[in-house]
Amino acid sequence: MPRGLARAALWVPAWLAIAGMIACSGREVPVEPGVSLALARHRAGLISNLHYALRFDIPAEIDEAIDATADITFDLKESRQPLQLDFRQEPGAVRALLSNGASTPYRFENEHLVVPPSALRAGPNAIRIEFSAGATSLNRNPDYLYTLFVPDRARTAFPLFDQPDLKAVFQLTLRVPPEWTALSNAPVASVSALDGGKEYRFADSDLISSYLFSFVAGRFETVTRERDGHTMTLLHRETDRKKVSRNIGAIFDLHAQAIDWLEDYTGIDYPFRKLDFALLPDFQYHGMEHVGAIQYRASHLFLEEAPTENQLLGRAALIAHETAHMWFGNLVTMRWFDDVWTKEVFANFMAAKIVNPAFPGTDHALNFLVSHYPRAYSVDRTAGANPIRQELANLNGAGQLYGAIIYAKAPIMMRQLERILGEEILREGLREYLRVHSFSNATWPDLIRILDDRTDTDLERWSRVWVTGAGRPEFRVQSGKDGNLLLAQHDPAGNGRVWPQRFTARRLSKGIFPLLTIDSVAAVTPLPDVPADAARALLFNGDGMGYGLFPADLDLLGHWDILTPLERGSALVMLYERLLAGSLPEVEAYFAALLAILETEQNQLLLDLAMGQLARIHRSLLPEAAQVRQRPRLERVLWQRLLAETDSGRARLFFEGFAGLAGSPEAVSRLHALWSGELAPEQLRLAEDDFIALAQTLAIRMPKAAGDIVAAQLARTLNPDNRRRLSFVAPSVAPQRRVRDAFFASLADPANRRTEVWVTEALRNLHHPARVDASEAYIQESLALLPELQVTGDIFFPTSWLHATLENHYSDRAAETVRAFLESHADLDPQLRMKILQAADIAFRANRIRASQEGGASSAPGTEREHG
């Protein structure tokens, strides 16, 4: 019998119930840093009809203050308590505050402007604030800026009620230098010339959450196109006219195709007034779904000549993802950031569907597998694994909820849900969800109530494992009493959980055997008619639908020629996970098998997967002696395939693999010849970004010539944004230890971390595999900076900082530094603790695996002292 409202109500966790009681009790909500759940619930029950009229006067000079005003109007249910506006700046940033036309004696306390009840009234209210805008989230550059306010960073720029369930209308006025262009959520209402500048006035926006409010202003080229009745405008700073010309049409086409597909799937026309986008150099994210004004990292949309299949698919999926957010996340927004994953999973889930028709020659099941499973496992295998839906008591911790579980595991979960319900039932449920909650907010239980009415499956019980539980199952083959095999699910956390799922198993041996479909819904599942002696000849999860650590050994690769591409990808994913788990001890043998695959395989998705595994094994898992043995063949295979390729996409894959792994003098000399232009293979078309990357690699590999290489590359770099980037990262490739030490020390100053993508790039240079011995000294201080990075950085920065710091390390000292830090910082924010454990997992495993090959001893992965 369908289940719904009564059972879904049981999902309310204790911390949410307590916050609700505080918000509804009439007791004064404490003034504390951030935006607490209690404060958000309190304000959501009081405030309605919210409107912001904002003005920013933006000077040309990057260090000059931005004068601003905010006129905030709203209806208040009652005025018995002080009203807290969120503003994370110094008290001196506020010049005046008027409430309902009168100067008001507000308090500035714990990142809040506290307005007394005497200055408020039940019904309509108007608050005017004159202030200096905070620069933290304005991302100011020499001749442009852009805002990025997710999840709670609007309050670093201007005073507001910064929570997703207080949707508002925003009216923006910008005064900018005369040569600047501006873009925001709403159409431009007027542009006026002023002395020394011009003024953009934008129309009222649609009803949106504060984190989705945005503007971009600066020196940009503007391109406007019409597709299927939609007029779209693109802002960019790319100086390579040929690159712009060959990409611009596809960018507009992909947006239009995504809109058409989503309108058909949802039954709702594009819900906002416009759809424009800005392509930004070195943007922190791949993209951000601001209503009607999407921001993208330029390099992900302006592709170089002869892009790989993965790059083309990645661009299409990124555009589809951000466009899907207009419905899933923007039209219907999560009520609180504990459900931020819902907007991301819907966007990723839809993107996977949208790109399929545009790439009829692509194996989309394989693409889904290689795009999602390795990333999801990279967290779920660790001692810091987190559930898809996490608790959140304060928005100031929301940034650390993001990660591979949201972006990679959640779409896998959604495929399982779709399999339970069927495509049409899920679609009907999502349509109702969007209709019911349009221009409002919703929760995951709200959707489950809708879906529960359409199925006999106990979705609440199913969700407790897949959504609110962390980790993955381990599958083990056992012998049954009847002589046939059994497949057992094991919960590594020891909680006896079972992940209900369906996948296939294929018997790989002489003779023809039917494909098994396994419904693994219990702790033990019989495998009928599969005798015990066939255990090593079974390929599990060949359809890529299952999730967990499956049995696999190297014998599977002996059947490579008869496997489908999807089965090959699944086998590689499983073998690599077994390798990291310590149950595939033949590390060098697997490395050699990957090299053999790279010698003959043609599928770009499989080549990319195998290349990534091979690079990680070579850098971290192989002992020095094995690296020396394998390096000649490694470099020979990659170089020969690069030269022999007639397909430019595959040629680029082998070039990137060779550039990342070349270590011998002969191989480095070949890289230098490519960089200098002495060698120019016809099938390999290198662009400015490639030469910049090569220059950094060569500076590390050829220390005596490092200064000349960087200077030459700076001189030949035409794009001014690229020159600034290379100038910033140059000290990180310096041969002098003192220069690198001074550069790393400079990163303690937030001003030197302004462009986070540059910082991550520089950290990867500092921790280059050729320099891990020297860079171990940076690990302790890098970990110590994390609490500050959580406050000053954008949502992905702490994670990218950690991975750039730790992913190439494997020594006892490096592993012990991380463990000692965790043990000595018992009060560390739990989210940061999880992120450290996730990022350090590969270092811990590499330390143990290398020790086992060299005859040493180390703790096994998954049994580290810290379990999160």
How large is the share of residues in beta strands? 15-25%
Helix content: 40-55%
Calculate the terminal CA-CA distance, rounded to whole Å.
Answer: 39 Å
Major β-sheet, in short?
8 strands, mixed
Strand arrangement in the largest pleated sheet: 5-4-8-2-1-11-14-13
Radius of gyration: 28 Å
Q: Tell the overall outline.
A: globular
Number of helices: 29
How many runs of DSSP E, i.e. beta strands?
A: 28
Query: What oligomeric state do these chains adopt?
Result: single chain
Mean pLDDT equals 93
Classify the secondary structure makeup into a structural class: alpha+beta
Could you list the spans in which at least 5 consecutive residues all have pLDDT below 50? 1-19, 857-868
Note down, in words, how this protein is organized:
With 868 residues, the protein is of the alpha+beta class. Helix content is 43%, strand content 18%. The strands form seven sheets. The protein has an eight-stranded mixed beta sheet, with no helix packed on it. A five-stranded mixed beta sheet has the order 16-17-18-20-19. Strand 6 (107-109) and strand 7 form a beta hairpin. Helix 6 crosses helix 7 (340-358), helix 15 packs parallel to helix 17 and helix 16 runs antiparallel to helix 17 (648-661). The longest helix is centred in the first third of the chain and has 26 residues, at 241-266. It is globular. Residues 1-19 and 857-868 have low confidence and may be disordered.
